[in-house]
C-alpha cells in the first residue's frame, strides 16, 4: 500500500507540476503581457471639439483690414455714428449765435454726406479717414483691449454651457444676437442666422440662456459700446478629429 | 473603477456564486490538465513498451525464458501482464496431469482475457473525467455567465438612467465564467478524443497479441499431448 502510494506520487508529480505551470503561465499572460486586448477596450470618447467665435459689430474696425473691403463697407458706416458722438457737443459750443441751429444742421448734413460717401468709398479710405478723424483712437484701442478680455470671459462661459447636438457638422454656423443689461444679465437672445439645423440652433441659444449672466465691464461706455447688444457666432469645428 | 479593467478585478468583483463557478472551473481545468499530462506520459510509455516487447517477443527468444525474465519483476506493463498471466496459467495447467489440451487452452485464454480487461481499465483511467469536464464545463461556465448577467440587469433596473457603463462591467465579469468554462473544456475534449483513440489502438494490439499467443500455446498444447 505504501509503495503503491509512493508510485502514484511519483507518477503524478510531474503532471501536477506541469499543469500548475501551465495555469500559472496562463494567469501571468492574462495579468501581464496580454495588454493589447485591454488597451483596445479603453473607449475613446468621440470628442467634438468646437470653437465659439464671439463677434461684435463694434469690434469690426480692428480685424477688418484683411477681409474683402466691399462687403464690409456698409456695417462700418453704420457703426460710425457712435464713435463720432463725442464730437457733437464740441461743435455747437464755439458759436452760440442764432444761426447755431442752422450751422448744426449744416454740420449734421455734412457729416451724413460724408458718411454716405464713406460707405461708398473703398475700405482703405474709410480706415484712413477714421484714423484721421478720431482723436480718441488711442482711448478706443484701450477700450478695445478691455472689451477683448471680457469678450474672452463670455466666450469661455458660453463654451462651458454649450452642449453640442450630435447632428452638429463642420461648416454649420448660427448667429445669435444677445442683449444684456448693465449688470450682465442676458435679457434677450435672438437667432439672426440659423444653421439650417434646428437642434444646433437651439443648442446655441440654450448655451447663452444657460450662461444667464456674463461678466461685463463696470465702465458704462465700454459696456454700452461693446456689450449692450452683440452677436455671437457659433460653429462646431474640428469635428471628430 | 479604473479605466482599464483587469480580468482579476472582474473576478474579485464578481458575485459569490459566479466566483464559486469560476473556482470550480479553475479546479476542473487544473485537474484535467494533471490528467492530460499523466495520461500523455503513461500512454506514450505504454506504446513504446508494447513496441519493445513485441520486438523482443518475435526475436525468437524461448517463451519459457521470457516468462522467467518477466515473472520476477514487480512492475509489469500491459502487454507483459497479458503474456505472463496467459503463460503462467498455461504452464500451471499443463503441469497438472490429466488435463486435456482443450481445457488448458481455455484456462490460458481466460487468464489472458482477465489480464486484458484489467489492462483496458488501467489504460482508460481518467478518461471519463476528461469527458465529463469537456462536456459539462461549458455549461457550468454558461450558468455563471447567465447568473452574472441576470444580476447586472437586475441592478440596472434600479437605475434611473441606464448607461452602457453601468452594465458593461457586470457582463464582462460574467463572461469571464464562460471563458473559463471553454478554457477547461477545449483541452479536455481534445485530450479525451486523442487518448481514447490511442487506447483503442493499444487494445487492438493487445487483442492481436493475445490471439497470436493463443495460437502459439495451442500449437504447444496439442504437440505435447500428441
How would you characterize the overall build of this protein?
The complex is a heterodimer of chains A (241) and B (226). With 241 residues, chain A is α+β, with helices and mostly antiparallel strands. Chain A has helices at 2-31, 35-41, 69-79, 81-84, 87-90, 100-120, 123-133, 137-161, 198-211, 220-227, and strands spanning 51-55, 174-180, 186-193, 229-235. Chain A has a 4-stranded antiparallel beta sheet with strand order 1-4-2-3. In chain A, a hairpin with a 5-residue loop joins strand 2 (174-180) and strand 3 (186-193). In chain A, helix 3 packs antiparallel against helix 6 (100-120) and helix 8 (137-161) packs across helix 9 (198-211). Chain A is rod-shaped. The model of chain A is unreliable at 63-93 (pLDDT under 50). By secondary structure, chain B is mainly alpha-helical. Chain B has one domain (7-225). Chain B is built from 7 helices and no strands. In chain B, helix 1 (7-13) crosses helix 7 and helix 2 packs parallel to helix 7 (164-225). Chain A binds chain B through residues 11-12, 14-16, 18-20, 22-23, 26, 30-31, 38-39, 41-42, and chain B through 3-8, 26, 29-31, 33-38, 41-42, 183.
List the helices and strands and how they pair.
The complex is a heterodimer of chains A (241) and B (226).
Chain A: H1 2-31, H2 35-41, E1 51-55, H3 69-79, H4 81-84, H5 87-90, H6 100-120, H7 123-133, H8 137-161, E2 174-180, E3 186-193, H9 198-211, H10 220-227, E4 229-235
Antiparallel strand pairs in A: 1-4, 2-3, 2-4
Chain B: H1 7-13, H2 16-57, H3 63-72, H4 78-95, H5 101-124, H6 127-157, H7 164-225
